[in-house]
Design brief:
By secondary structure, the chain is α+β, with helices and mostly antiparallel strands. It contains 3 helices and 8 strands, in the order E-E-E-H-E-E-E-E-H-H-E. Strands 1-2-3 form a 3-stranded antiparallel beta sheet, with no helix packed on it.
Length: 154
Amino acid sequence: MGLYEATVSWRLADGDDFASNKFSRRHEASFDGGESYVASPSPQVVPEPMSDPAGIDPEEALIASLSSCHMLYFLAFAAKKGFAIEYYVDNAVGEMAKREDGKSWMSKITLRPDVKFVGDKLPTAEEIDDLHHAAHSYCIIGNSLKSEVAIEHQ
């Protein structure tokens, strides 16, 4: 169906001591279109200076991936229905929890999209619910997760 690639690269920094577990986890993720970003574990997981708070941590990337996927389907379905959208902003939040075996996982991700419809044809509350339901059911990232996904829209 499709093959998707990302390159994640890390290199020991000068002066870091890998054997003593005192090394930076800052790294880079890059993609086939040429975009890249600095990545790092969250300072909540790995303290500074071994993490870089300016970097995108894997948990944030997961939340953003789900939010982006949901948004793209939502926009496509809204356009097909003839609705016009001026903006879509989602302040998504992920909640970490411990499993029974003590390992951490992203137990819940809440999408909180704020969508401004414009024009002569505005959707009803039920139509907006239907758009979110359809977006969620088609979202590839959402379909790939075990996490609970909640959608709180205005």
